[in-house]
TrEMBL record:
Keywords, sorted A to Z: Membrane, Transmembrane, Transmembrane helix
TM region(s), chain numbering: 29-46, 53-71, 77-97, 118-142, 154-174
Protein known as: DNA gyrase subunit B
Species name: Shewanella atlantica
Length: 182
């Protein structure tokens, strides 16, 4: 049951922009804010020991969704992607300062005995991810404040994921093709 709840809440969080779009357009006022708030609370409860670094963004998300419902301000729902990007930026940026870098930590899950020569490369990749989080966060903030719900949904529900996928795929290609040659 726990795994099922993790999958459902993960899918909802990934689909957050689409849920907001459809909820604001097709559900009674405040309904989507309450539903999202309940899912964020559920996510917090089922992951409390697993990913401590995601507790703060979940709490802020709960505050935004609950506040949106109470204040009857649907625009507050639009700021959650900003919170996620800022959280990821802080997490990845802090790992650069404190070490090991976030990408090194992730790489060591697959290959615990990384060569020392890989560390500077992994730090650069972490820095590139920080740049993506800055860009995504700025565009998410801009779309939340100044654009239509449709543009906000298009960017935060599709384009941002395409950028993330492009960085993942591009880095993998670079690593497997060019770095393996040298």
């Amino acid at each position: 049951m726990r795994l099922f709840l993790q999958i459902v809440t993960s899918l909802l969080l990934i689909g957050y922009p689409l849920a907001v779009y459809f909820g604001l357009n097709y559900l009674p006022a405040g309904t989507i804010a309450m539903v999202l708030c309940l899912f964020l609370i559920l996510r917090l409860l089922i992951q409390k020991q697993q990913v401590k670094s995601m507790v703060l963004p979940l709490l802020v998300g709960i505050g935004l969704t609950a506040g949106s419902f109470i204040a009857k301000r649907h625009d507050w729902l639009l700021y959650y992607p900003v919170v996620i990007n800022l959280s990821m930026l802080l997490l990845f940026g802090y790992s650069l300062k404190s070490g090991p870098s976030m990408i090194e930590r992730l790489a060591r899950l697959k290959e615990p005995d990384l060569p020392d020569e890989a560390i500077p490369y992994l730090q650069k990749v972490t820095l590139i991810w920080c740049g993506l989080f800055v860009f995504n966060g700025v565009v998410a903030l801009y779309t939340a404040r100044y654009s239509s719900l449709e543009i906000w949904t298009l960017y935060n529900g599709l384009i941002a994921y395409l950028l993330i996928g492009s960085l993942l795929g591009g880095e993998w290609l670079y690593r497997t093709i060019w770095l393996k040659k040298s």
